[in-house]
Task: inverse folding
């Protein structure tokens, strides 16, 4: 008798727990919503959901819902989504359930009917890796004496256009603030054109460099299509540098790498725009690199006090790419 009574009480507890469990149906209302590993904006992103996706939540922690989404291989991924990016469709205030009558033996398991909507599939992680390519305009800032000599001979200094490419990886610091580490292949140099003794003169210093950058990035919107701004520091290493001199029909070219300080540094300013499209995120970006170090190497025979010449690089890049 006591054993039967214990079974009845156990069955009552189980059925009351099942009947009062909350199931909250949510609908994504932004273009792309992040599902994070913890209820915190600095936590890693484990999945992303598109606008209109319907998901189930079983609990709420402050402003975060605990949800489950299907991964690429079909496994369940448990994470948290912020209440600001979803609307509650049903289940926020569940109706009181009727207690089932007591039974003298355990009831057979009741299968839960499948929901009438499809569970949203999500990628396994956020898109943080960036590939870019585009055009670069290279120039150099010269010391006053060198610039004065160019002006005296009625010549002009201009930029060189070349191809640039780069890679980047983005780390999340908060909902809108990120840190980006990037590496770029960029052209460098400048050109001086004019006339001397009735002959056309063109002097071109052209080279290439690898530049590493560490930049802070602020996004106006944490998810979806958004503009952003960047600022940081860059360090470059010159791979090649040649000077080509053309006077009339005569041409001469020499390697000037030995006269160049191969390591240089500067500050980087930039702005861009991200736009999710399908499984990719399109990126358009403009950057300005202001070199602060002197690339002109001081000859050994010149004293430090007499050396006032400098050539400091500047580069403007316009690139497009994708984030994976």
Result:
């Amino acid at each position: 008798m006591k054993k039967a009574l214990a079974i009845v009480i156990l069955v009552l507890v189980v059925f009351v727990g099942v009947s009062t469990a909350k199931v909250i149906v949510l609908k994504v209302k932004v273009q792309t919503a992040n599902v994070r590993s913890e209820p915190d904006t600095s936590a890693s992103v484990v999945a992303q959901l598109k606008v209109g996706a319907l998901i189930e939540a079983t609990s709420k922690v402050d402003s975060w819902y605990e949800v489950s989404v299907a991964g690429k291989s079909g496994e369940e991924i448990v994470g948290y989504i912020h209440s600001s990016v979803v609307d509650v469709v049903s289940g926020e205030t569940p109706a009181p359930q009727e207690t089932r009558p007591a039974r003298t033996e355990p009831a057979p398991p009741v299968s839960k009917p499948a929901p009438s909507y499809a569970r949203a599939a999500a990628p396994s992680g956020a898109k943080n890796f960036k590939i870019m390519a585009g055009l670069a305009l290279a120039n150099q800032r010269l010391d006053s004496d060198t610039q004065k000599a160019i002006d005296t001979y009625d010549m002009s200094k201009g930029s060189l256009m070349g191809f640039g490419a780069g890679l980047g990886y983005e780390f999340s610091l908060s909902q809108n603030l990120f840190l980006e580490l990037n590496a770029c292949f960029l052209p460098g140099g400048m050109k001086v054109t004019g006339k001397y003794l009735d002959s056309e003169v063109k002097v071109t210093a052209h080279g290439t460099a690898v530049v590493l950058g560490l930049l802070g990035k602020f996004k106006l919107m944490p998810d979806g299509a958004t503009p952003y701004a960047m600022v940081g520091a860059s360090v470059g290493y010159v791979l090649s540098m040649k000077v080509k001199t053309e006077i009339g029909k005569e041409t001469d070219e020499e390697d000037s790498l030995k006269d160049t300080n191969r390591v240089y540094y500067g500050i980087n300013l930039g702005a861009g725009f991200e736009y999710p499209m399908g499984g990719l995120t399109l990126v358009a970006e403009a950057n300005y690199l202001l070199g602060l170090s002197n690339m002109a190497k001081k000859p050994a025979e010149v004293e430090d006090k007499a050396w006032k010449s400098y050539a400091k690089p500047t580069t403007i890049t316009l690139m497009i790419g994708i984030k994976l």
Notes: The longest helix spans residues 2-19. The CA atoms of residues 170 and 319 lie 17 Å apart.
